[in-house]
Amino acid sequence: MAAVLAAFVRAVPARSYDERRLRLFDGGFVEQHVLRGRTRSGSEFALEACVVCEVNGGQITRLDEYFDSAAVAALAKSA
Questions:
Q1: Which range (17-21, 39-43, 65-69, 71-75) has the least confidence?
Q2: Exposure winner among 13, 28, 49, 75, fewest CB in 10 A?
Q3: CA dist 75 to 22, 25, 30, 33, Å?
Q4: pTM surpassing 0.90?
Q5: Which domains, ranges and CATH numbers included, belong to the chain?
């Protein structure tokens, strides 16, 4: 997982997380956001994402992240 994140950071040096929506539930939270960025080749993108986290004792104990697979495929082609 760390290697995937490192590769993403290299491929998308300029990025921001916009339109954040946070919903709390007993034992965790859900965050929806739009990941915006520009790839090293100059292509701009906006990718809707959802993160579901379980929290125990003030620590995130599980994190699941979801993206639209078609949007990710298009981003991979432009990177």
A1: 71-75
A2: 13
A3: 25, 32, 24, 17
A4: no
A5: 2-78 (3.10.450.50)
